[in-house]
Amino acid sequence: MSAPALNRLELTARLVERAPLRLTPAGIPVLDCVLEHQSEQVEAGSRRQVNAQIRSMAVGPLAEQLERMEMGCEARFAGFLATPARRGGVVKTPRLVFHLQAFQTTVTP
Prior knowledge:
By secondary structure, the protein is mainly beta. It has one helix at about 60-70, and strands at about 10-20, 20-25, 30-45, 45-60, 75-80, 95-105.
């Protein structure tokens, strides 16, 4: 018996871009956005400054919550990675998109 495949990402990031909320033909809200992450990580024993932007999207009630989030606000985001596909499963672009499933704003002192 094999272990289930794992696709889970958690990231502390700031909301830096947000497209207008749109609705699918079924009336489900979708929000495309860009998150920006900055941190210091240790790689091969050396400290490294990490700056990254990641295309992201939220669907349903989470999209509506994200639409109300203040730009520049930092939060802890959780979800999975996927490549956008056209109808029929054909990959539209090889770029990954962070599909958000939850977020919680961080409280800074």
